[in-house]
Design a protein that fits this description.
36% of the residues lie in helices and 14% in strands. With 98 residues, it is of the alpha+beta class.
Length: 98
């Protein structure tokens, strides 16, 4: 999925951080990644629907070292701040668990 803004795959929002490592033989990373990809795609559709560009904030599918799916939200600070404001408005700015 892409927003209307440019080449979001090479926009500087690097998601390969310190947790990026070698794969362990015998661990099913694909199943976890598929589950995470479905969730990330759903969140990205929501972000696009809320007026965000995926070049400024997006969900990214990954797996952890034991193959469990992980979804990370990555973005520029101002976009993440806008997303936080939107979530606070939806939850009544209570700051607790929904």
């Amino acid at each position: 999925m892409t927003g209307t803004g440019g080449d979001w795959l090479r926009d500087g929002l690097d998601v390969a951080g310190a947790d990026c490592g070698l794969w362990v033989p015998g661990v099913d990373y694909v199943a976890g990644w598929r589950e995470a990809r479905e969730a990330a795609d759903r969140l990205n559709r929501g972000l696009l629907g809320a007026g965000f560009e995926l070049s400024e904030v997006r969900a990214v599918a990954s797996t952890n070292e034991d193959g469990r799916g992980v979804v990370r939200v990555t973005g520029w600070p101002n976009a993440v701040g806008r997303l936080a404001g939107l979530l606070e408005a939806v939850t009544g700015n209570e700051g607790g668990a929904v």
